[in-house]
């Protein structure tokens, strides 16, 4: 009788889908295994259940840490969403400091990752040439997208080229907000020189003003709260809310 190779044995489980005949086969295997192999403390059980270093390093921060920053349930953070965050940080070279600033602004703009797309339908952006909206329907198609609400045909076109995915421009906000909510936000962050700016450790209100376009930025208290949690979770010293607060804290 020929013996299964390790490769063939692994393939037996690779195609497991919980079908009736497969369940029966697993039950037969269970009945044939020695008791010591079925012990809770068997080496293979502990190895199988243990989170590997590769998995730990898959994302820059854990789902639990992201949920803590965003005040959301861990169950709302899909693997695909976290994978896009990881790719965003990798592609746009967001170090821990930039991630803390970035997460603070994203938290406010998206209401804790609840809204990867703008509430308004975008009709108020029709024919906004400063956003690249030159065709009928551009305002709606390219309304605020991603967790930092990137708006307009121009930004979608530029991001489409950068990411190498033409669907971004062909399908617009619904596609991009679902597939690249982090990455399009990271692209905006990079293109607006936020990476170099944040490396100077500016106060949170200054960063919020750059994102929002006014000082004090809309929702500045909320931006501060998200940012404080992000800096705390990432183990970084909080840079202060404003220049005034930083001056007071240094006395």
List the helices and strands and how they pair.
Layout: H1 6-14, H2 20-32, H3 43-49, H4 53-56, H5 63-70, H6 79-91, H7 96-109, H8 138-141, H9 153-163, H10 167-171, H11 173-179, H12 183-191, H13 194-198, H14 204-212, H15 220-233, H16 243-249
Helix pairs in contact: 5-15, 6-12, 7-15
Explain what this protein looks like in three dimensions:
With 251 residues, the protein is mainly alpha-helical. The chain has 16 helices and no strands. The chain has helices at residues 6-14, 20-32, 43-49, 53-56, 63-70, 79-91, 96-109, 138-141, 153-163, 167-171, 173-179, 183-191, 194-198, 204-212, 220-233, 243-249. Helix 6 packs parallel to helix 12 (183-191) and helix 7 packs antiparallel against helix 15 (220-233). The protein is globular and about 75 Å long. The termini are far apart. Mean pLDDT is 89; it is low at 51-55.
Short recap of the structure:
The protein is mainly α. Helix content is 55%, strand content 0%.
Distance between the termini: 82 Å
**Overall pLDDT:** 89
* H/I helix tally: 16
Number of strands: 0
pLDDT under 50 segments (min length 5)?
51-55
List keywords for this structure.
251 residues; mainly alpha; 55% helix
């Amino acid at each position: 009788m020929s013996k299964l190779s390790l490769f063939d044995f692994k393939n037996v489980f690779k195609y497991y889908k919980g079908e009736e005949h497969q369940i029966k086969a697993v039950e037969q295997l269970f009945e044939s295994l020695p008791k010591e192999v079925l012990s809770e403390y068997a080496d293979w059980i502990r190895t199988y259940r243990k989170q590997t270093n590769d998995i730990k390093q898959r994302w820059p921060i854990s789902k639990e840490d992201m949920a803590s920053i965003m005040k959301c349930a861990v169950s709302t953070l899909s693997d695909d969403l976290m994978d896009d965050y990881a790719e965003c940080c990798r592609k746009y070279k967001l170090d821990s400091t930039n991630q803390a600033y970035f997460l603070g602004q994203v938290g406010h703009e998206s209401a804790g990752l609840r809204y990867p797309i703008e509430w308004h339908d975008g009709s108020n952006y029709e024919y906004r040439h400063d956003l690249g909206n030159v065709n009928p329907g551009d305002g709606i198609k390219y309304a605020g997208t991603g967790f930092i609400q990137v708006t307009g045909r121009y930004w979608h076109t530029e991001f489409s080229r950068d990411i190498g995915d033409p669907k971004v421009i062909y399908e617009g906000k619904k596609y991009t907000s679902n597939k690249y909510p982090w990455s399009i936000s990271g692209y905006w962050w990079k293109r607006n020189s936020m990476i170099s700016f944040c490396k100077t450790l500016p106060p949170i209100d200054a960063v919020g003003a750059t994102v929002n376009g006014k000082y004090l930025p809309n929702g500045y208290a909320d931006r501060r709260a998200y940012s404080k949690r992000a800096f705390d979770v990432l183990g970084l010293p909080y840079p202060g809310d404003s220049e005034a607060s930083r001056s007071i804290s240094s006395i």
